[in-house]
Amino acid sequence: MSITSDMVATYRGPRKVIARLLAMGVREDRALVILMAGCVVVFIAQWPRLAREAHVTGQELNPLLGGALLGWIFIAPLAFYLIAFISHIVLRLFGRKISGYAARIALFWSFFAATPLILLHGLIAGFIGAGVGLNVIGAIWFGLFLWFWTSGLVQAAKGGERDA
């Protein structure tokens, strides 16, 4: 399936998509590309908010964009790898047989699949600003992300992939 078809399918049943991704075999390059694509989308989603902030405060936009670039393209991937490692260790402590790769794919795909809501969040932050709408979209995004991630971890622990 194409990446957009998989993304839409994740909203219907995240476990099936994670199972399909894990059945493709251990490909660390695939995991990294999924994570980096998610980080790039989140970076792009920050543009309207940063433009609004620069306009309202009178700051230059380029330093704000540079800081967001540094944070989302260079630092956030390291944080995601750390979160995936911690989730892998915690699941192992609770007796779940899950590989590090499966933990990474579950986290990275969950993050990437939820990015359409991050784009909407960025648009609301840029055009409307802080308020109830921004908080609601943020909460919906977080809830979907957690649903995708826990479903992915359950599928991976059930037998998606265990050898890596």
Oligomer: single chain
**Number of β-strand runs:** 0
Helix content: over 70%
Structural class: mainly alpha
Outline type: elongated
Mean pLDDT: 89
* Intertermini distance: 24 Å
Proportion of β residues?
under 5%
Task: Sum up the structure in keywords.
164 residues; mainly alpha; 8 helices; 84% helix; disordered C terminus
Give the topology, please.
Layout: H1 3-12, H2 14-23, H3 28-45, H4 47-57, H5 61-93, H6 100-113, H7 115-127, H8 132-160
Helix pairs in contact: 1-2, 2-6, 2-8, 3-5, 3-6, 3-7, 4-7, 5-6, 6-8, 7-8
Describe the protein in words.
There is one protein chain. The longest helix is centred in the middle third of the chain and has 33 residues, at 61-93. The chain is elongated. The protein has helices at 3-12, 14-23, 28-45, 47-57, 61-93, 100-113, 115-127, 132-160. The chain starts with a helix and ends with a helix. By secondary structure, the protein is mainly alpha-helical.
Summary of the model, kept short:
The protein is 84% helix and 0% strand.
